[in-house]
Design brief:
The chain is an alpha/beta fold. It contains seven helices and nine strands; from the N terminus they run αβαββαβαβαβααβββ.
Length: 253
């Protein structure tokens, strides 16, 4: 071979060029799909943060508030359409929402009726829990009926028998109702109700929970429904629960 000879340049095959073009098209399409999914997710979150059941069907609607909502501006809550507010007050035998009293007073100043919620703890005695509630929730004639929130808690591994739970719950209800001068509501979550069937064993008005669709559990029709736990309002930090009251005479869902 003569010195100075050059080798011919190797040409890229048509298959390689086609493969790279196909990859680029696939990446563009994947990016487009990802963008559409992000837009759809954002739209869903936007919708969920604002959706409430129709007012013409459920005229009486309100919020659930706890310490996670920070310093609540109750004028804004009232302007958002809340007719009432349930406030988490006590939890188990010792825990207290640190801003319950402040929220209760401020909500009433804004013309919003309030009621207290107690988170029932399966690991604590009913009498001790009732004492905690009575110590921190004053009796008021204008207060809404108290609510017993029934759900599982990662802090409490106990799972008592149904008979024991119903006995303890009856004791708790008797004591707080004597203090408040009115009967309570019970608010079991769907998993709790499936395991313990509280609504079959405790004769109380029920408040059930299911986002966006009327709840279909419980032994009898609900009186109140937490319809959306993702509502965002300008007057509160984070999300609030949005609730509706079943109008009298409404047919079962």
């Amino acid at each position: 071979m003569a010195m100075g000879a050059t080798f011919p340049k190797r040409r890229r095959s048509g298959k390689a060029r086609d493969w790279r073009a196909l990859l680029r098209r696939w990446l563009w399409r994947a990016a487009g799909i990802a963008a559409l999914l992000l837009l759809a997710a954002g739209a869903a979150l936007w919708w969920a943060a604002r959706w409430t059941p129709p007012r013409d069907r459920y005229p009486l609607q309100g919020v659930t508030i706890d310490a996670g909502n920070g310093v609540v501006h109750w004028g804004s809550i009232e302007a958002a359409g809340a007719d009432f507010a349930y406030l988490f007050a006590t939890d188990g035998d010792a825990r207290v929402d640190p801003i319950y009293a402040r929220n209760m007073a401020a909500a009433r100043e804004a013309g919003i009726r309030t009621g207290p919620i107690h988170r029932y703890n399966l690991c604590k005695l009913a009498t001790d829990q009732a004492a905690n509630f009575i110590r921190h929730v004053p009796r008021r004639a204008d207060a809404l009926p108290p609510v017993v929130w029934l759900d599982y808690d990662d802090r409490c591994p106990d799972r008592p028998t149904r008979a024991l739970l119903l006995s303890e719950l009856a004791t708790f209800l008797a004591q707080i109702e004597a203090h408040m001068g009115k009967r309570s509501l019970i608010a079991p979550g769907p998993n709790f109700e499936a395991d313990y069937q509280v609504t079959r064993g405790i004769a109380r008005t029920t408040w059930l929970r299911r986002d966006f669709f009327p709840p279909d559990y419980g032994a009898h029709p609900w009186a109140m429904w937490q319809a959306n736990d993702y509502v965002r309002l300008s007057g509160a930090d984070g999300t609030v629960g949005w609730n509706v009251v079943r109008p009298e005479g409404m047919n079962d869902e």
